[in-house]
Write a structure and sequence with these properties.
alpha/beta, single chain, 10 strands, Rossmann fold, 286 residues
Length: 286
Amino acid sequence: MTDTIYLDFDQETLNREYSARDTVPNLDPYIAEYGRRSADARNRLECRPDVAYGEHPDEVVDIFPAGDGAPVLVYIHGGYWRMLSQKESAFMAPGLVSAGAAVVTVNYSLAPGASLDEIVRQCRAAVAWTWSHAPDFGGDPDRLFVCGSSAGGHLTGMMVAGGWLEQAGLPPDAIKGAVPLNGLHDLEPVRLSNVNEWAQLDEASARRNSPIHHLPETGCPLVISYGATETSEFKRQSRILADAWKARGWTADIFEHPSRNHFDIVFDLDDPESLLGAKVYAMMGL
């Protein structure tokens, strides 16, 4: 008899449920496309690269201004906390800047060299820095939004978690809306899967970094989506955050994207007429 590890999953099945790359034939073309589109954005748009938000060399953002009084989208990249950077994460900037929104793409240190506690701290520092410095690049700190996909979806969940904004000296409603795409919001099954080879979570740190266990006093509007080809666990992870949000009477627009997968859903952020893009642009008042 095979031992169950989590819910009714044995170890092999749990590992497969948390393997995003196995949901597509080949990951490489998507990573290449992230880089190509992001390089094109830097070439076409005004870009302030590698602006420090902290003291560590990894603590930098790329800024794409959009004129005075622009809403600001802070984008936190994915890569299962262990790969990519802000340099592959500007693919949405052309569409958003054209629509009048500034974009800030966040870099952070990668696992396993950095713990998840540290990665969350860095991303929160980047959000706090952006809120404080938005007027320096024409952004409106009263219209700050956060978005991320996969690991970035998890980190977006931790940006709207309770308590830290006030501790950082920001108003509790500093983030006006968030877009966690195919994110992970309860890290206990992640800890039990082979992802923990680099996430290196124990039971306490998994709970400490699970958005579902740290809901705020008041939740901002969320747009939550995931690809149709996601595993059942990735889909469930989005639903548990949406369900918790709605149970408290807050807005969570959640939907499965019928024609996107785990890796290409983010390309909708550059298109205001796409299924996801239309919802995000509307949330930002564009």
